[in-house]
Amino acid sequence: MSVSPSLTPSAAVAAPAPGPTQAELLDFVRRTAADAELIASLPLDPEGRTWVRLEGPGGSEAWLIGWPPGTGTGWHDHAESVGAFLTALGELKEHSLTARLPTDGWKTLELTEGIDRERRLRAGKGRSFGRHHVHEVLNESTEEHAISVHAYYPPLPQIRRYSRSGQVLRLEQVERPADWQ
Length: 181
Fold this sequence. Notes:
- The chain has 181 residues and is mostly beta strands.
- It is 10% helix and 39% strand.
- The chain contains two helices and twelve strands; from the N terminus they run H-H-E-E-E-E-E-E-E-E-E-E-E-E.
- The radius of gyration is 20 Å and the shape is globular.
- It holds the Pfam family CDO_I.
């Protein structure tokens, strides 16, 4: 008598659901920035940036950030995360690079001419961005705080910080979530 092996259907392994798109993140920051009560609840410091973590859509990481006059982020990227941010109060200025940089294996890069971009983001204005987006964000006002809403997916695995002198960009530091949470 022969016995045939028992066959059981293999369980289908579901691929993880894709996270929110750049457009969905931008929609989230737009809706969140319109919440006047939330925006007014952020404690503002006259000297340093303040932030509160928010629940973002679909497992994303979100932040409400207060910017005192004259503050900024310095040049940085968000590694493998896509993101969006929107100014809820005041005005922010963003300097960014239009060229994608190599992700690893370099400490100093000579940037080509013509890759710089500048945006002024008044209250209600924002933008989304893809992976490895390199930028700096500034509140150039000498008198007014700014407040913005930011969202990233996947949640930030790291932030690379850069210094810039003319067309030379230098990797200075890599921060992990424990450094800012």
